[in-house]
Design a protein that fits this description.
By secondary structure, the protein is an alpha/beta fold. α6 runs antiparallel to α7 and α9 runs antiparallel to α10.
Length: 434
């Protein structure tokens, strides 16, 4: 905390007056009583009355015998960062400048000094003082001979006034600094927000352009691909004299189907990510979806030594509101993925309700578990990203699971991979049950 300024300048051409001020303002109360009692005994005056026990306030005094000296003292004190809080200025100080001019010049170098004019004569009328110094609350008049209590009160009041004014200025400066910092912070936030918004707009524009390019490429490639597929089959038929071998035909169909599947996946991803999805939900039966899934699994594993196990919980809601074709799209992809990666063993389908921890209530759960080669550990974290393959032997482009994950999110659900205890893989599709 800043120390209170108790610096007082005494300006008087009489050195004995300086001693009087020193006794009043720079001497403790007990010492003043002893001094006054000694003077009374010496000059045979009346005994000094008892003084209050409280200590008088002590001030740091500086003295000047002439006005010019006082002005120099005020200038140096201000420059040294130790200004005077107030000054007692005698009105008549021959041969130098008088009290009014001294005050004018002191205020020129330090306008904050509080001043008491000490006068025993009518050197200047009050109107003349006001005319020269102006009406101000920095100036008071003390008539000589002055009383000790008056001097103490004036010194206490005016130094406190100076300190209060300083505190007020510091508080105002602090408030102004805080306001400036707040404005600067707000301006920086606004600048940052504008930059973020501009960057976001650029990013959105770039993503939109890329999605549109992807859609255009897919649309442009899909039709020619289907035409090439038809021409390939026709050329095989022509080259073999009307009866192409089953192996060659299946190879062409498989490769072409994979290509068409990839392009369709690109189109679906672009439509979902680009916000061009316009699917409309409708009521459908979860049990019908489950039965269709079981039949789809039987078809997918046909010709392989794989058993299809189907378990459907009896307590399913009669209907749910969803997009049936999308649900079938996800489930078909999961079944195809399981059948493609399993050579023997089993493919298990489980349908039931799963208690959710959130406020949405139970979720529909479709689980497809296979006993195939499983998912490589290195790909688990990116399993639902585009062009991620389950392992090095997977020949598909890796869009199916990415599309399924996006579709599940668009349906208000989620897709999850679960590593089984032994071998294979489990994929779970959770959907709202309302």
């Amino acid at each position: 905390m800043r120390a209170e300024n108790k610096r007082v300048l005494i300006v008087d051409d009489n050195a004995s007056i300086h001693d009087d001020f020193r006794k009043v303002l720079a001497t403790r109360a007990a010492d003043q009583v002893a001094l006054q009692s000694a003077e009374a005994a010496l000059f045979d005056d009346e005994p000094v009355a008892a003084q209050p026990s409280a200590e008088l306030e002590l001030f740091e005094l500086d003295f000047a015998l002439q006005g010019e000296q006082a002005v120099d003292s005020a200038r140096r004190a201000r420059a040294d960062g130790k200004p005077f809080a107030m000054a007692f200025v005698d009105m008549r100080m021959p041969p130098g400048i008088d009290g009014v001019e001294t005050i004018e010049r002191i205020w020129a170098v330090d306008p904050d000094v509080q001043v008491v004019v000490c006068t025993a004569f009518s050197d200047h009328s009050w109107q003349d003082v006001v005319r020269r110094l102006g009406r101000t609350d920095r100036l008071l008049i003390l008539k000589k001979p002055f009383d000790t209590i008056e001097v103490c009160q004036l010194a206490t009041a005016l130094t406190e006034k100076w300190n209060a004014a300083l505190r007020e200025r510091e508080h105002l400066a602090a408030a102004q600094r805080a306001e400036g910092e707040a404005r600067a912070y707000a301006a920086s936030l606004e600048t940052t927000n504008n930059a973020i918004e501009a960057s976001w707009r650029r990013t959105e524009a770039e993503l939109s352009a890329r999605r549109q390019l992807l859609l255009n490429i897919a649309d442009t490639v899909l039709a020619p691909t289907l035409e090439v597929l038809a021409q390939s089959i026709a050329s095989l038929d022509s080259a073999s004299g009307g009866a192409p071998s089953t192996g060659k035909l299946e190879d062409v169909v498989d490769r072409s189907t994979d290509l068409v599947h990839t392009i369709q996946g690109l189109i679906e991803l672009a439509e979902i990510d680009g916000g061009r999805d316009r699917a409309v939900a409708s009521a459908c039966s979860p049990r019908d979806l489950a039965d269709q899934l079981a039949r789809r699994a039987e078809d997918a594993v046909q010709g392989k030594p794989i058993d299809v196990l189907y378990r459907c919980a009896p307590a399913l809601p009669a209907t749910v509101k969803t997009v049936p074709e999308r649900v079938r799209r996800v489930l078909d992809e999961l079944v195809d993925n399981a059948a493609r990666n399993t050579e023997r063993g089993s493919l298990t389908i489980e349908v039931g309700l799963h208690e959710s921890s959130d406020s949405e209530g139970p979720m529909l759960r479709f689980a497809i578990t296979d006993t195939g080669r499983g998912v490589a550990e290195s790909t688990v974290n990116a399993l639902f990203e585009p062009f991620c393959k389950t392992d090095a032997t997977d020949t598909r482009a890796g869009l199916g699971l990415a599309v399924c994950s996006r579709l599940a999110g668009a349906l208000g659900g989620r897709l999850r991979y679960v590593r089984p205890a032994q071998t294979g893989a489990t994929f779970e599709l959770f959907l709202p049950s309302r």
